[in-house]
Amino acid sequence: MSISRRSVRILGVASASAALALGFAGNALACNISEFSAEATCDGTSGVITVTDKDASATEATVTVFLENNGADAKQIGTAQTVKGSREGVTITFAEDWQPNAAYRVHVKAGKQVDKDITPNLTTPSKACKAEESPSPTPTPTKASPTPSETASTPAESGSPTPSATESSTAPATTTDNAPSPAAGSSNLAETGANSNTGMIAGIAGAFVVVGGGAVYFGMRRRGANNGS
Predict the structure, then answer these.
(1) 110-137 exposure pattern, b = at least 16 Cβ within 10 A, e = fewer
(2) pLDDT digits 0-9 by tens, 139-198
(3) Is 216:208 a contact under the CB 8 Å cutoff?
(4) In contact, 61 and 82? CB cutoff 8 Å
């Protein structure tokens, strides 16, 4: 059975279309550098660099991260990691305490299809991870707030001794007031003689003088009477 030229042409066009479709499908499923992305984030207080692979063909890729300094590699971050992507995306993490506004070069090698850097280079945020956590220590000033109460209690304690000082000052004042009074009393009594027996003696002497005078008077009168008789 012979095949007509028309049938041969139809078969040729169909095979070419199939090959072209397979070529487009292969290119669509092939790994591409555009399917990789990198980001600098924080894991708590520590910085990390994450690389996400959204290669639907799940081609195994090796990712290496370098810190850049003036356009040159300063150091490699950790070790190279392998990843097999998916349409949803697979993420790998590099631990790095990155500094603000730092630049990192992320290189991807996937078989013979990709051997390139993610462009542009990764630039970290303007705030470091530790700087974001630094507001937490601010409560420490509230702990220092009790110190005013302690200092306030000190003047109260220093003020309490003042009454004792006034008590001690009044005590000598009372002794000085009491001391001169007996001295003054004793001097007055000495001057007036109220405390001695002088008055009593003078009274008795006066009585004896009167009695003596009366005896002399009666004696002389009696002698005159005797002489008259």
Answers:
(1) beeebeebbeeebebbeebbeeeeeeee
(2) 666 655 555 555 444 554 545 455 444 444 444 444 444 444 444 444 444 444 445 566
(3) no
(4) yes
Distance CA 216, CA 37 (A): 159
Check pLDDT > 50 for residue 59: yes
| Alpha carbon distance 201, 189 (integer Å) | 17
Residue 229's pLDDT is what? 53
Q: Which parts of the chain fold into alpha helices (H)?
A: 5-29, 129-133, 140-144, 146-159, 161-178, 180-192, 198-228
Between CA 39 and CA 68 the distance in angstroms is 15
Residue 158 has which token pair? Answer: 């220093």
Q: Which two tokens stand for residue 139?
A: 């409560």
Token couple for 68: 């850049």
Name the pLDDT band for 203 (thresholds 50, 70, 90): confident
pLDDT at 222: 74
**Element at 121 (helix H, strand E):** none
* pLDDT at 37 (0 to 100): 97
Paired with 91 in beta bridges are: 52
Angle of helix 161-178 versus helix 180-192 axis, rounded to 10: 10
The letter for the amino acid at 210 is V
Q: Nearest Cα to 61, choosing from 49, 52, 73, 71?
A: 52
CA atoms within 13 A on the CB side of 22: 6
- Per-residue pLDDT at 207: 82
